Amino acid sequence: MPVEEFVAGWISGALGLVLGHPFDTVKVRLQTQSTYRGIADCMVKTYRHESLLGFFKGMSFPIASIALVNSVLFGVYSNALLALTATSHRQRRAQPPSYTHVFIAGCTGGFLQAYCLAPFDLIKVRLQNQTEPRAQPGSPPPRYRGPVHCAASIFQAEGPRGLFRGAWALTLRDTPTLGIYFVTYEWLCRKSTPDGQKPSSATVLVAGGFAGIASWVTATPLDVIKARMQMAGLKQRAYRGLLDCMVSSARQEGLGVFFRGLTINSARAFPVNAVTFLSYEHLLHSWG
Ligand SMILES: CN(C)C(=N)NCCC[C@H](N)C(=O)O
C-alpha cells in the first residue's frame, strides 16, 4: 500500500488547518450559541473578550489529530482509487479514473476519516465553545483545562461512548460530501487542463478551493446537527438521537437553522482547501 499519500495528506492538512482555524471557531460558536447576531458580532465579541487568542482556542490539538485524519482521508482515497482502477497517483493524469470511481473512493475516504475524526472533533468543538477569557486570578477556571483534560472529563462523565457523541451525524455528513469534494476537484482540474497534462498550480488552487466550498455547502445541515449533538452532553437539553435533534432544532428555530454557519463555512473552505490540495499535489510531485 503506497504511504506517501498519507504523509502528504498529513502535512497538507496541517497547513490548511492553521489557515482555517479562526473561521472554524467563529462557525462553531454561531452554530451552537445564540448570543451572537452574526459573523461580525461573533468576531468582535471574541476579540474584545478573549483577544486574538480566542480565535485559536483548541488549535494545537487539531494540528496533531485532524491533520492525521486528513492523512487518512487522502491516503484511503488514493488507495481506494488504486484498488478500483489499478492506477497509481502518478498514472492518473494519463489514465484518468471515471467520476463514479472518484466518487466511490471519496466516500470511502470520508466514511473512514469520520470514525477517526469523531473523538478529536468532539474535543475541538467543546474547547472552542468555552468562551471564558484566559484564566485570571479570582475568576472561575474554565470547565476544561485543555484537550487531555477535556477527553478525560468526557470519559469520566459520559463513559467511552461519550467520546463518540455526534459520530453518526459526522459519518452521514462526511461520507457523501467527501465524494462530492473529490469529484468537484477532479472535474475542475480536467476542465481547465489539456488532456494528459498536470494541472497548473493556479488550477489546483482554484479547483481545491471550489471543491472545499462544494463539500461544505452540502455538509452544513448535518454539520449543525453534529455540533449540537456534540454539545448536548454539556447542556440540559439532551436529544434522543439525530432525528430528534433535527426536528427539535427546526421546530424551535425554523428551517434556517440548517444553514447556520454556511457563509463562514464557505469562506473558510476556499483558502483551507486551496492550500491543502496545492501542498498535497506539490509534495507528491516532488517525491517523484
Ligand atoms: C465535511 N467536509 C465537507 C469535509 N471534510 N470536506 C473536506 C475538506 C477537508 C478540509 N480539511 C476542511 O476542513 O475543509
From TrEMBL:
What the entry lists under SUPFAM superfamilies is as follows:
Mitochondrial carrier (SSF103506)
Q: What terms describe the molecular function in GO for this protein?
A: transmembrane transporter activity
Major subcellular site: mitochondrion
Which Gene3D superfamilies does the entry mention? Mitochondrial carrier domain
Tell me where in or outside the cell this protein is found.
Mitochondrion inner membrane
Record carries keyword Transmembrane: yes
The Solcar repeats are at 1-83, 97-191, 199-286
Q: Where are the transmembrane segments?
A: 61-84
Q: Which InterPro entries match?
A: MCP, MCP_dom_sf, MCP_transmembrane, Mitochondrial_Carrier
Q: Which GO terms describe its cellular component?
A: mitochondrial inner membrane
Its keywords, alphabetically, are: Membrane, Mitochondrion, Mitochondrion inner membrane, Repeat, Transmembrane, Transmembrane helix, Transport
Topology relative to the lipid bilayer, per the entry, is: Multi-pass membrane protein
Q: Which family does it belong to?
A: Belongs to the mitochondrial carrier (TC 2.A.29) family.
Protein name according to UniProt = Solute carrier family 25 member 45
